[in-house]
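=== RUN LOG ===
request id: a7f3
mode: sequence -> structure
chains: 1
length: 310
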Amino acid sequence: MPELPEVEVVRHGLDPAVTGAAIEAIEVYDERSLRRHPGPAEDFIDRLTGARLDSAVRRGKFLWLPLRDEEGDPAEALVVHLGMSGQVLLRQRDADDGPLTRIRLDIVHPEHGPLRLNFVDQRIFGSMAIDALLPTPDGAAGGCGSAQPSIPSQVAHIARDPLDDAFDDRLFLRRLAARRTTIKRALLDQTLVSGIGNIYADEALWAARVHYDQPTEHLGPRRARTLLAEVRTVLRRALEEGGTSFDAQYVNVNGASGYFSHSLRAYGQQGRPCGRCGGLIVREQFMNRGSHFCPRCQRIRRIRSTTSLR
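=== RESULT ===
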């Protein structure tokens, strides 16, 4: 499933093409890709036709394109859920849509001219939907790529991600210390911190030498801060390399794959020597997926009392 770096690569590629562009026509090939839209395909088409796009915004793994109203201020947004295999591809108008295109948007940009956005989704777990924008509780911008303190209602329950300028380290550390769970479950909890999926959780935990099943109450403030720093490092490295691509499903708006899969130290490395201590990386079952770690240098530690993270 696409994680923060993959979605940010898509957002970054879309932003110059959609900012200020007007939607001229919409084609819905498969209404299953409108499952999160509060209305039929006709409503989706009518409300989008003629709308002007404000920008491309991301929070965690969620992407949206604010729609300008008559006064010029965004009141609604086109929310894009990539799901397991969704792609947003930027194409020329005369390009072939292909058999997996579920929704097509023909747009015209004041500088770049006529363009096409294809929402491609092999497994049809993703979707597009028009959604109302709500004020952010903290008054800060809704996400990366936005200057507006607003967020779609479908995304409002999602916490900020560690690369968000408005991410509050101290608040996150306090909330993490108060949890009674294990650290990887906490990292995957999108209401606590967003954008960290299975791949980057394993990579950050390996870098911080923290076992995935480490109880959060026994993590300690110093290791928690180290882990948060490693999460940011891993996410930024993945962004620099265009995300992690294992097959043709994970591509940017031009259809190019990312290369972070060549830099993985833990995820998918089971049976190979740990790059730090030489012990073998193992994979254990975890929440219907796998956790990859080094048993030698990622051990569960317990402390007698939990120190306050202030």
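=== NOTES ===
Residues 148 and 201 are 30 Å apart (CA to CA).
The two ends are 34 Å apart (CA to CA).
=== END ===
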